[in-house]
Amino acid sequence: xxxxxxxxxxxxxxxxxxxxxxxxxxxxxxxxxxxxxxxxxxxxxxxxxxxxxxxxxxxxxxxxxxxxxxxxxxxxxxxxxxxxxxxxxxxxxxxxxxxxxxxxxxxxxxxxxxxxxxxxxxxxxxxxxxxxxxxxxxxxxxxxxxxx
Length: 148
Known about the structure:
The chain is of the alpha+beta class. It contains three helices and six strands; from the N terminus they run ααββαββββ. The protein has a six-stranded antiparallel β-sheet with strand order 1-2-4-5-6-3.
């Protein structure tokens, strides 16, 4: 049974959904925001033929991009406004092939420091089996921008 979201969680989720519409890569890949709250983000991907590699399963790069996006959103929930994040490291283990269906990425912040945020992201297939697990580190910088 799905957990009910608080007003704050609903608001955060809607804000992230609006922001995600600005991301051409997330739009292209078809990532959907399910929920966002303190230190956690859950995203979905409805697998389409464009997500599959030559062997008929979701390409590992798509799953890595999903993990990176979910983990970044989770990390942004624990830093002050105006802090920019960049992926410093992403390590992913692919545990099962994903042939189709709806994929869910559940990202959580493990540790948030002044300069680095460490997260994990579990990716589940349609049946709810753990298909991949990622560990990600983000660098954070207050007062800096990633835009030129």
